[in-house]
């Protein structure tokens, strides 16, 4: 579980962004385990802070109210130690203030997935408020058009496909190694990235 001390190190919280179904939770948990870091799901933290579900927040306060709470929770998670792996909701990075906080205090990784895969994955569960607003493929396609150009501002982009999650996790680790080797390694006590598979 613990990371080896060789190679570049993680200087700040890794923030996973992407559309629903991109694998932010499954990859995030594996990535955190490989790095020996805590994993935090922003949506779960929002629900805990609000004392109700994401759907209930949407129903009571609308999307604007949800984004306001989301912004405050993500700010807290980014600014408090320790360094961690943070999975965010699909719309979080679209908020300009949240995006600026992530840019300043985190290292963003866009898990990019194609439409067919997103439709397949999101069909397994019925808990996503935005997918209740129309036919899922059409909704996801529209979200891709709007969000992908903004997601492209992330520090790193890693394709999330139908290969096993461990392979995608290794691609994220490789992208982090390459990025941090360019000089964004941070403090000497930053968390090291393990080399290859343990």
Structure characterization notes:
By secondary structure, the protein is an alpha/beta fold. The chain has one domain: Rossmann fold (3-Layer(aba) Sandwich). It has seven helices and seven strands. Strands 3-4-2-5-6 form a five-stranded parallel β-sheet. Strands 1-7 form a two-stranded antiparallel sheet. The longest helix has 26 residues.
CATH architecture identity: 3-Layer(aba) Sandwich
CATH fold call: Rossmann fold
Broad shape: globular
| Terminus-to-terminus distance | 9 Å
Number of strands: 7
How much is the radius of gyration in Å?
16 Å
Largest sheet composition: 5 strands, parallel
The CATH superfamily label reads P-loop containing nucleotide triphosphate hydrolases
Helix and strand succession? EEHEHHEHEHHEHE
Domains (count): 1
The average pLDDT value, as a whole number, equals 86
Low-confidence residue ranges: 1-6, 184-189
Strand order of the largest sheet: 3-4-2-5-6
Q: Which secondary-structure class do the elements indicate?
A: alpha/beta
Helix content: 40-55%
Beta-strand percent range: 5-15%
Count of alpha and pi helical runs: 7
What is the CATH C level class, in words?
Answer: Alpha Beta
């Amino acid at each position: 579980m613990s990371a080896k001390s060789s190679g570049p190190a993680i200087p700040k919280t890794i923030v996973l962004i992407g559309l629903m179904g991109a694998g932010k939770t499954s990859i995030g948990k594996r990535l955190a385990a490989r790095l020996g870091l805590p994993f935090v799901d922003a949506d779960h933290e929002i629900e805990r802070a609000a004392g109700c579900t994401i759907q209930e927040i949407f129903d009571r306060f609308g999307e604007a109210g949800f984004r306001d709470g989301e912004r405050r929770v993500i700010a807290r998670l980014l600014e408090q130690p320790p360094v961690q792996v943070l999975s965010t909701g699909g719309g979080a990075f679209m908020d300009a203030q949240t995006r600026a906080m992530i840019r300043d205090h985190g290292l963003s990784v866009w898990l990019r997935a194609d439409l067919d895969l997103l439709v397949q994955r999101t069909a397994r569960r019925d808990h996503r408020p935005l997918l209740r607003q129309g036919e899922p493929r059409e909704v996801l396609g529209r979200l891709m058009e709007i969000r992908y150009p903004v997601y492209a501002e992330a520090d790193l982009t890693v394709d999330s496909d139908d290969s096993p999650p461990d392979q995608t996790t290794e691609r994220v680790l490789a992208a982090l190694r390459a990025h941090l080797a360019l000089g964004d390694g941070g403090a000497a006590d930053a968390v090291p990235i393990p080399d290859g598979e343990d």
